[in-house]
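quick one, two chains, predict together pls
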Amino acid sequence: MDSTSDDVPRDQASPITAQFGPPVFALRDVSKIYTMGEVQVEALRHVDLELHAGEFIVLLGASGSGKSTLLNILGGLDTPTSGTLNYLDHNLTSADEAALTAFRREHVGFVFQFYNLIPSLTALENVQLVTEISVNPMDAAEALALVGLSDRLHHFPAQLSGGEQQRVAIARAVAKRPDVLLCDEPTGALDFKTGKIVLQVLQRVNRELGTTIVIITHNAAIAGMADRVVYIGSGQITRIERNAARLSPEDIAW
Amino acid sequence: MVSLRPLDRKLVRDLWRMRGQAVAIALVAMCGIATFVTMRGSYEALLSAQTNYYAQYRFADVFSNLRRAPITLLERIRDIPGINAVEGRVVFDATLDVRGLDEPASARLVSLSTTPHSQLNRVNIRSGRMIEAGNASEILASESFATANALRPGDTLVAIINGRKERLRIVGIAISPEYVAEAANLQDAFNDVAITLAPHASASQVIEHLDKLLAPYGSLGAYAREEQVSHHFLENELAQDRVTGTVLPAIFLGVAAFLIHSILLRLTTLQRTQIALLKSFGYSNTAIGLHYLKFALLTVMAGGIAGIVLGAWLGRGLAEIYTRFFHFPTLVFSLSTFSVTVALLISVLAALLGTILAVLRVLALSPAQAMHPESPALFKPGPLERLGLQRTIPLSVRMVLRNLERSPLRALSSVIGLSLALALLITGQFSYDALEEIIRIQFRTAQRDDATVVFNEARNTGVIHNLAALPGVLRVEPFRSMAVKLRFRHREKKAAITGLYPERQLRLILDERERPVALPQNGIVLTTKLAQTLGVTFGDMLTVTFIEGKRKTVMVRVANIVDEMIGLAAYMDARALGRLAAEQETVSGAFLAIDPLHQRALFRSMKSIPGIAGINLREATLQSFLATVAENLTTSTTVLIAFACIIAIGVVYNAARIALSEHAIELASLRILGFTQLEVGAMLLGEQAILTLASLPLGCALGYGLSVLLSVLLSEEVFRIPAVVSSKTFLISIGVVLASAAASGLLVWGKVQRLDLIAVLKSRE
């Protein structure tokens, strides 16, 4: 694998900026501490990270490494205990619930491990649910065509396979043309073959729509697809690798 | 420390986790048990007070009024087979001049025997002392009369007795079983008899003998205890207590059982894998079933015990109202072992009913099957969408409609629960509507007189001019009233025929559209209730036997049937009545229109007119009627409204909590996707809103139906309860249900705000 490795993440910025333009997300010295009863758990410790428009990022880490916390903070589901978080010119560090909701609604697309579709709505309606509240959405049917489900528009979740459900979830997430798509173990509940189809869809979204994609996973094989791979352990970014060339999902195996 | 078995520890935690819903169920059960305990306890208290009082004060079985008979006749009455004891009394109505009271008061004077052992209808002295034998100026005043006129032992009254003014001194205040619901001395004659029957004697045979014997002395016909006004009133109340004591608890506990069912259905679905695990460990179906039954039992029993306490408290309050209303010497509400046992048993029954279906469903699964999560719900387009209307329905509404369509039974049960709450609210307020309708029609439209004067015997028509000449009398309309027996085929009824004159303005007979009905020159007009009692219809020939005057028996045609509020009444043209009875034209009384400016002067002059047995002032009658009824009604309506709110809140809160539990992941996902709390809350509560709205027409229909049923059940001979429910009642009831639903919505709203978004990312239910 043709990749460069660097132990000092902060100095990474310049060549990436050259390729993708200025950062969209900027985390500076972000820490997150959860208080559970009498115990304080430091989920993130002094994390610095920048994400650029159109980047395909894989956050790799074992369970409990802090990668989910990082995703939650990036997605506006949680706020840091200390440090700053900026999205373009919005400061999200101490945004309130309403501001975070608006941020998620306008800028972020989520893809969950277990799809979380609304069982009482068809594939098309699940997508429409989101396009209805978006400012500049794509057509719901078009979004489903993008994930290859043009022939399944009127199926209910219970009538779709796991892979198909996840593709509906991706269509739902991209239909509002988000600036960033956050995917939490998107292949975690899928078999190898279907998992690859889902990854192909994500890659296509990234290429055709230019959406920034962040995938969190413990599946190291996916790392080859990324522009950059962020390794997380014990609440810290241990390493960031840049892939000189991205692998196609067909070429990876696990 | 008490060590609980693991399964019981799980029970305690489940209960704590679902405390909101458990409390809602307990409250509904509490209302059911409280109504049962209150009504059953009051019924028992009333029944035992009645039994004791009747026995202790020797309440008679048969009564008869007559004009005047010699004391010696009593011996012949005593010889009638089946009679145990006889007492002859003097009873008459007189006009009293009470100090401080402008209008003449009418009072019933009843002679008392001062020999303590022989007497029937004994009185219970509340204060002062018994009258002295042979002292004609001493009287006992009934408690209600004394209270109403602020009289105490030692006070004196002036009564007009047989045209003479007599000073009477109150020596004591008393109550009597005969006038539970309302006392003079005369020699050698009596005009009223009270009789107790020997065991197993037939009242109707005794009455037949008695009527024959007393007919020459002007008897208006004897009647049994069942027809005695005060007794009848009491029996009616007892019957009502029995009805409400059964119907209401059944409704509440039915709802409680449904709530238990829905909450356990959800709990067992959520705990499917736990149940499988327990089964695989070797726990028996019985052990697991009992575990969930305990959940239901603890919840309902907590409500049941609270209900017993609340019921005892409410019952004590009701007993106080009863004591004031019925004038019993003692009326004590006590919690009987019977009612507590039954209350607890019905709680257990409700818990069992609620548990059984929900738990059997899960127990039927094999452990291996149950280990797998339930397969995802299969939805289909709803009925409106099959009609091609989906484009017009917003997605969030489609979600709600499909959810409802998927579990129609649950939706239906919620709708029924809410409808029952609404129906209870409507029925609770229906009493007010019926009362207002009675007042509007009877007291404002039909009876337009200010006062009714009744003479103690029929007078010739010249008395009308005397009345008209009194100060302030604007109009006098005389009437003739005659006691009769009406017979049609095998049915017979004692009644009075009121003879009215054609040019009436003060007393109208109304048809069902409230239009005045003219009395025909020939023939009789009956009220619907009397026509039903006799089984006659328009055009039938009725046999009329007059039990006063010449006592003729004649045939008369039923010329009309009118739907009056007053239950049993018969009307004829006054002159036609005179011809029928072959009597001279006389009057029994008159309706008066009075100039309020001269009212005082009129009352003063009336106090001195002999022969007036009583004066009824329409407004005074109405006000005293309202005062008695209002307290009872306000109390029961308030309790009913509070209880109905509890049902409404319980049903909506539980339904919303269950919906939240089922859709938590969906809703949290939507929150992550950028939906606001408001949007997500609307999706959740939309379902409850639709159910609430759907329950409104059903609840209104049910409430109206229940009110009609009540009007039929509670209508008696004296009064017909009109089946009217005002739009105000409907609106208030709907408002209360909507407010209760909104309140439950708010309770659940808090949970929507606290949805755990992050947990959703990882969870798979």
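The CA atoms of residues 112 and 208 of chain A lie 22 Å apart.
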